[in-house]
Amino acid sequence: MIATTRTKADAALVAAVEVARAALVADVDPTSVGEHLGFEAEGDRVGSHLFACEAKGYHGWRWSVTVTRAPRQKPTVAEVVLIPGVESIVAPQWVPYRERIRPGDLSPGDLLPVDEDDPRLVPTYSFGDDPLDADAKAQVRQVAQDLGLGRIRTLSPEGIESAAQRWYDGEPGPESPLAQAAPANCFSCGFLLRIAGSLSETFGVCANGDANDDGRVVAFGHGCGAHSEVKLTKKQQPPPLPEPVVDTLRDDLEAL
Hints:
Elements: H1 11-14, H2 17-27, E1 33-43, E2 46-53, E3 62-68, E4 76-83, H3 97-100, E5 121-123, H4 134-146, E6 153-155, H5 157-169, H6 177-180, E7 192-194, E8 203-206, E9 217-219
Antiparallel strand pairs: 1-2, 2-3, 3-4, 5-6, 7-8, 8-9
Protein name: DUF3027 domain-containing protein
InterPro entries: DUF3027
Pfam families: DUF3027
């Protein structure tokens, strides 16, 4: 038996293979218990015997039987569990639903609430210096709405920076394959609509109905083949049509 950790293995526990196997076959289907794979010391007079799992659908999994003993006492079984091995097929790490949402996932009627403390947003108006609970804040928002003060929250500097970085690094940015193959960038395109605000020096909106990005935010360094000033070279232009040939052998041409 080989201990796989730095903890010194208790000799009595290492030798308790049959004690562990007996407890295992009493707790699970005996046909699912395979050969003994070794012993792992986990602490002072605590360790686990590992057995191969032969159950269908559990390739690479192992039965782990934890054994322990008090000083000058015989080993006893503390726990029997099934654990994955290196070759086991396991479920991917769970990701919260909010973090799995991607652009395009929402369908008509779907709702995606924004957290009250979302760092991408800041209040358009102040609640004052006094701490308020959720109900009091809701009343302030209602009054602001009734007075026509506009949006309850607006983008924070962090929210603006996050959006700008996402757009610049994504398909609307200058590094996308479409932009790299473009003859010129959006900054010089007549179809670029300017925007206001802090992003006006970096982004605009495409207004070319023939372009892939029509109606979307694009970086000035972005580009595509539908640039307003693009010209075809002689090689790219379609060949001219040949001169028409008149059929002089037919009498009915005059009637036409």
